[in-house]
Amino acid sequence: MTITRKMATAAVAGLVGAAMAAVAPGVAGATDSCQLGWSNVGPRSCAMNEIRTAPAWTLGNGVCVGMLSAAGVAYDGPLAHYHAFPGTAHSIELRITQGFSPLGNFAPTLLACDVTAIVDWHNLDTGRSGSVSHFIPAGYTSYRPFHLHVDSGPGRVALTLRTDRPSVPATAEVFVP
């Protein structure tokens, strides 16, 4: 009985050791590229802070009433080569969506219009400021967001989401590592 118990103990210890080796974090230095989120292999994870704005209300093409929302992350970077904005550092990645769907992603979207989204930013620590704009068709909903890059540099950054049409802008503030 003791031999069987010893073999079982050795087998369990071997399995636990193998499992720990399989899920151990990868070895990556501070100068390696990072990826947003968590990884146990390859590039290191970014230091990041989440950001979300209130909806920005707008008049779109013609008489369309629209709603834009922005959410995303501020990260230290540099981002890995397979990312949408490779090599960027100390920046903000925003996912801009239009309207909402009360019945889920595959139902019709309400309050979506063709508009040009404008993100005005001001780094409160360095004084740098700028604006990023892009035309966003009504099809960019929560199911398929539009990604926008804001190269703000590190520090506290104030963002304002608005459109090129009459709108009620939305503001938010985030710390970029």
Task: Describe this protein's structure.
By secondary structure, the protein is mainly β. The protein has 1 helix and 12 strands; from the N terminus they run αββββββββββββ. Strands 3, 4, 5, 6, 9 and 11 form a 6-stranded antiparallel beta sheet that branches. A 4-stranded antiparallel beta sheet has the order 8-7-10-12, with no helix packed on it. 26% of the residues are buried.
Cα-to-Cα separation, first versus last residue: 58 Å
Structural class: mainly beta
Output the number of helix runs.
Answer: 1
The parts where pLDDT drops under 50 for at least 5 residues are 18-26
Q: Would you tell me the overall average pLDDT?
A: 81
Could you provide a short overview of the structure?
With 177 residues, the chain is mostly beta strands.
Set down the secondary structure blueprint.
Layout: H1 2-23, E1 34-35, E2 44-45, E3 48-52, E4 56-59, E5 65-75, E6 91-98, E7 115-123, E8 129-136, E9 146-150, E10 155-163, E11 167-168, E12 170-176
Parallel strand pairs: 1-2
Antiparallel strand pairs: 3-5, 4-5, 4-11, 5-6, 6-9, 7-8, 7-10, 10-12
List the main descriptive attributes of the protein structure presented here.
177 residues; 12% helix; globular; four-stranded antiparallel sheet; mainly beta
